[in-house]
């Protein structure tokens, strides 16, 4: 009777089995078929230049201290104004109009009362942009407590509108300059602080432009405002610093997956596995160390992109590579470090939106500079400039560039005598000032906005 084949050459077959077992173990733990989803960018730093400000470290009369004190005062003003019953019903309707129609206390009774009660708060807000210490605590995506601070975007324009009605253009633009300074402080933070900051700057600049379109602003006031706006842009360096501060989130993202109460990243996993994230890490050849390393590389790529000229195709490609059309099973089986991949995919849309809106804010500030300059030319020469080069050097040192393509911002006079200043916006294609494709500031903006308000009220 012949012996079984594995007994004929026991040493050989034992070696085969041993080597096979080792290979299987290596394959199980290394899983070489998995595709890497992020590659580090050499030489890019993701450590912020200074540690985030802790609430306990806020110094007296620093920008953030003034913001908090003003928030307390404006809350008192809001409550005092709400007690009369006017504010709740009328303030929301009034605040969309007072930069479009002439101001009077009778026309805007709720806003007038709120404004009168808010003078202490406004005085504090005016000091925010002048504070030497402009550090802002990190907030993540929490926006609680912003309601009354957000009212500064309504009260300052109301104050400016009232001063315009009195012929005090210097005071009106000083208020709007203070509003830009106030929101610029938020751009020194990260997360929703930064988002609110760039949005507030854009909002304030539109008010500046509308006043110039509806009134004949004195030359010295307009030129002072233009010079001020030139200093308020958020540059690539500041945008990079914001994302460096955002990178401090990555350990929280890792902890969110490793939470023993259940991962929030793979919410549809079987319960027994979701409650055992370490086992899931083992099965997917991942680890806390690898997830943190990949998240660092992910933020390194973001910081690098934030420092480059705007490129819509690159931003889209970056977002798409983290949100491809893969099923959950394909992600789990084919992707290296699935937890890091999913966490990055959840964050990626925020990156594209923030970078694009930051460039839009820069474009809006520069378009407002041009609106003020064109109006000054029109007031002085009694005609419109044939092109923007006529504004140099009396009103502008040079024609502002469109941040989206680094070419001069566009100017077009229409047959009806109206005119527009526009940016090519995120598609980086000159669509001739087409609304919805290009970013536009029109000479008819106040009338157009007023018409939209009237239409929306008719629908209600």
Q: How would you sum up this structure, described in words?
A:
The chain is mainly α and 460 residues long. The protein has helices spanning 5-8, 10-30, 63-82, 86-94, 109-117, 119-128, 147-150, 152-165, 169-186, 191-214, 219-230, 236-246, 250-258, 271-274, 277-283, 288-306, 312-322, 328-334, 338-381, 445-459, and strands at 410-413, 419-423, 439-442. Strands 1-2-3 form a three-stranded antiparallel sheet, covered by helices on one side. Helix 6 (119-128) packs across helix 9 (169-186) and helix 11 (219-230) packs antiparallel against helix 19. The longest helix is centred in the C-terminal third of the chain and has 44 residues, at 338-381. Residues 141-145 have low confidence and may be disordered.
List the helices and strands and how they pair.
Blueprint: H1 5-8, H2 10-30, H3 63-82, H4 86-94, H5 109-117, H6 119-128, H7 147-150, H8 152-165, H9 169-186, H10 191-214, H11 219-230, H12 236-246, H13 250-258, H14 271-274, H15 277-283, H16 288-306, H17 312-322, H18 328-334, H19 338-381, E1 410-413, E2 419-423, E3 439-442, H20 445-459
Antiparallel strand pairs: 1-2, 2-3
Helix pairs in contact: 3-5, 3-6, 4-5, 6-9, 8-9, 8-10, 9-10, 9-11, 10-19, 11-19, 12-16, 13-16, 16-19, 17-19
Number of strands: 3
Question: Biggest sheet: strands, sense, closure?
Answer: 3 strands, antiparallel
Q: Structural class, from secondary structure content?
A: mainly alpha
Report the principal-axis shape: globular
């Amino acid at each position: 009777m012949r012996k079984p084949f594995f007994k004929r050459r026991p040493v050989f077959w034992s070696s085969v089995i041993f080597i096979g077992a080792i290979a299987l173990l290596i394959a199980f733990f290394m899983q070489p078929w998995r595709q890497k989803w992020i590659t580090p960018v050499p030489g890019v730093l993701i450590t912020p230049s200074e540690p985030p400000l802790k609430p306990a470290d806020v110094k007296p009369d620093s920008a953030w201290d003034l913001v908090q004190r003003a928030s307390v005062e404006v809350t008192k003003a809001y409550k005092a104004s709400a007690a009369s019953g006017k504010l709740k019903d009328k303030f929301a309707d009034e605040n969309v109009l007072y930069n479009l129609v002439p101001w009077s206390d009778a026309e805007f009774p709720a806003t007038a009362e709120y404004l009168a009660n808010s003078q202490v708060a406004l005085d504090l807000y005016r000091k925010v942009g002048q504070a030497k210490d402009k550090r802002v605590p990190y907030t993540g995506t929490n926006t609680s407590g912003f309601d009354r601070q957000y009212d500064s975007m309504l009260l300052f324009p109301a104050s400016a509108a009232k001063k315009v009605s009195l012929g005090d253009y210097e005071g009106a633009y000083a208020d709007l300059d203070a509003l830009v300074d106030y929101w610029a402080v938020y751009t020194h933070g990260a997360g929703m602080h930064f988002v609110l900051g760039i949005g507030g700057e854009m909002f304030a600049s539109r008010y500046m432009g509308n006043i110039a379109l509806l009134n004949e602003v004195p030359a010295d006031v307009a030129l002072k405002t233009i010079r001020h706006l030139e200093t308020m842009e958020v540059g690539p360096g500041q945008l990079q610093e914001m994302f460096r501060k955002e990178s401090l989130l990555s350990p929280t993202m890792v902890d969110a997956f490793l939470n023993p109460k259940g991962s929030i990243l793979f919410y549809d996993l079987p319960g027994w596995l979701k409650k055992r994230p370490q086992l899931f890490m083992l099965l997917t050849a991942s680890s806390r160390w690898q997830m943190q390393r990949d998240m660092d590389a992910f933020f390194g790529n973001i910081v690098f992109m934030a420092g480059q000229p705007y490129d819509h195709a690159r931003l889209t490609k970056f977002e798409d590579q983290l949100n491809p059309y893969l099923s959950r099973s394909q992600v789990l089986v084919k992707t290296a470090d699935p937890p890091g991949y999913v966490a990055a995919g959840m964050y990626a849309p925020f990156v594209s939106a923030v970078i694009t809106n930051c460039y839009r804010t820069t474009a809006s500030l520069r378009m407002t500079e041009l609106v003020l300059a064109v109006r000054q030319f029109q007031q002085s020469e009694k005609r419109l400039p044939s092109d923007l080069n006529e504004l140099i050097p009396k009103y502008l040192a040079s024609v502002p560039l469109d941040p989206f393509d680094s070419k001069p911002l566009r100017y077009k006079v229409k047959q009806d005598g109206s005119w527009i200043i526009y940016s090519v916006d995120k598609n980086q294609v000159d669509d001739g000032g087409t609304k919805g494709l290009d970013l536009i500031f029109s000479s008819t903006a106040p009338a157009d906005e007023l018409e939209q308000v009237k239409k929306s009220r008719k629908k209600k």
